[in-house]
């Protein structure tokens, strides 16, 4: 059973590879893209790493990843005039389909939940399974024109863009941190402040570490990689804390930090401009009492639930 | 000299602060960390390549994109707008709470409502302001400003705390992948389930906060009427 699902997962990676190579081809041919060669190469490389990453030597993969960084560093990855959904058409479609439009998106989450509960071994591949089934249902309900689904795939991939690759890269950074012993160094430093074996002190350090690092970086994902290796594992998991519960709460604790920082421009500064507010910190001020309340709740919940 | 190993963290913090290219910053941080920790350059490349390929699972959400794109082009958001517009004759605070709830529900089903530009500005803030006007009367500048800030805040609360209840959310897959690398078994579905209580708590805290706001609007109004 487990081999079956491992193979299935590999199949889904190949599917994503094809998705990405399709985007690469369209980008290469897109004359409205100012850097179509660089952008196409970016998507091609990721496509190759997904489809056949398992079979190419790690060093080659590493070189390819570095090339990705060079391409984005020199601003070679951009978007052309990708088609955007026509609001008039979307409006007409919502009259035609009404609430039926929600069926496939609800199925997407529901199937994953049901399959994962019934067959625990399916673990990660459930997302692939539910995506494929829900997409088929969507095609039946919506009845798109041929190739429309490919065009939508390309549009969404390009819109998610380089930012979409950040979580995977951060996970890889976490591995490098672990190999290099970064976690141990942070653990030594925090160990001087946090009393050994104190579960509550460990929880506070993990939650506050996430809050503060997310505030500084404006990004809870990046903070998660660093703080989990440095504080979460040695002071919460090693003290007997449930890794799933503790780390899930650590991430949302990081989001509380995001609510409090001007570094998170998309969330706290953008609305100030869009809504023509007078106080540039108005959104953060409105969020502050709630964020602080939520931080306290995170500490309590992690302490009582993870142990 | 163990401290030098923290160079990667310094690179990340400074790089993100100065808004350098994020992908490049992360790779440079990895390289710096590996080199000061005694890995050779080829060893670094191999570790990075291996780690990146091993963590492909984190980007599995790409498979959900064709469906979401298709639904969007065929009126997903327009239909959501229609549902929200049916929510009438509420106080401003209650309307904001309803939006918070809908926003979290959308996160559970990975429905992208479009965030501040496409949803808060054209829909949530005008409706919240209209709700306040019909229930308490004319608003002063300060109150209008507060409604704006709150409309944006609901979007952020709902977006942040709802997203991790979806099994293929980027954050969920990052947690799952990172924990597997650290040697813990952490299926994405379990992470998503463990994110449900805090998502519910967020709604409760939001409702309480919005009730306080309603009360404040009412008090302001009766003060104005008296004075």
From TrEMBL, chain A:
Residue ranges of coiled coil: none
Residues spanning the membrane: 7-29, 41-74, 101-119, 125-142, 163-183, 189-213, 220-239, 245-267, 288-306
One Pfam family of this chain: DUF979
UniProt entry tagged with the keyword DNA repair: no
Keyword Amino-acid biosynthesis appears in the UniProt entry: no
Keywords associated with the record: Membrane, Transmembrane, Transmembrane helix
Superkingdom assignment: Bacteria
Entry protein name: Membrane protein
The species this protein was found in: Oceanobacillus indicireducens
Automatic annotation (TrEMBL), chain B:
Membrane-crossing residue ranges in chain numbering: 7-37, 57-76, 160-179, 191-208
Source organism, top-level taxon: Bacteria
Keywords, ordered alphabetically: Membrane, Transmembrane, Transmembrane helix
Pfam families: DUF969 (PF06149)
InterPro entries reported in the protein's UniProt record: DUF969
Protein name according to UniProt: DUF969 domain-containing protein
